Write the structure tokens for this entry.
Amino acid sequence: MKVSRIQAAENHERILDIATRLFRERGIDGIGVADLMEAAGLTHGGFYGHFKSKEDLVAQACARAVARMRQNWTSVVDQSTGDPLEALAATYLTAKHRDGAGRGCPMAALGPEIARQGPTVRRAFTDELRPFLDYLSRVVQASSTGVRRQKALAAYASLVGALVISRAVDDTALSNEILAAVATTMQNNEHTERQTKTLPRRASTLTSKPRSAKRLSRSAKA
């Protein structure tokens, strides 16, 4: 039975949605094409009507997962009333996110595997991640463009690294401690930076007092 274009498009989307979830849950090599198609409710033979190869599917699935992550994170930042990095940490570094890899951050779930994939997959992943890093570099608070970029990259790496390690350990208490430690450190760093920005003004005020006292002393002598 011939499938309509509309149905074919819907099937394509369903395969991608299933793949983005199962790759994050089981790993890229942890599930084959036959099982993916079965999970999507489709026959194995229909796979090549949608994708050239499993690598093609992986590239498209990873690109989709990162694009959705970017949309979610951008929404969190845009809706926050405080510091964007603190808002991201509060959303990202949670037990719910840690325990829900299938619908969570693709970098934390697949990063080491992506590094071992071919150029097609790595390029698709990079092309979707780069716009988010550029966006984050614009919204973080810092003294210059270069420092904002550095701060954004470091924050992103800290968030992802914390999630990866929290999933790797087999001690729930330690896992929670790791998430809390990174969240608290990021929060403290932001508070420290905001306080530091006020120091030059205070120093200026302090240095002006001796001058005033000196002028008063001269006036008294006169």
Q: What stands out?
A: The chain has one domain: 5-203. The domain at 5-203 is CATH 1.10.357.10 (Tetracycline Repressor; domain 2). The chain has ten helices and no strands.
